[in-house]
Amino acid sequence: MCGIALLQSTVFMLQALCKPFLAILNSYLMSMLRTPNPRLPIWPRVPMFRIMILLILVCINSMLIGLT
User: Fold this and answer.
1) DSSP structure class, residue 39
2) Are 4 and 45 spatial neighbours (Cβ–Cβ below 8 Å)?
3) What percent helix, strand, coil does the chain show, rounded to 5?
4) pTM of the predicted model over 0.70
């Protein structure tokens, strides 16, 4: 019983630590899609790059929904 409680508290702690990081990463990627980055002039024009960012955003948002 003690092992299960320890595992649950560890999972809860990891969720609490990951949630702010995922939220920051989510907002960073969203802003990256909205405004072209002058330091990376080629990347925003590549459709595959935009698709990859959108897929990462979907994964992050589904994890954030699961963590609430």
Assistant:
1) T
2) no
3) 85, 0, 15
4) no
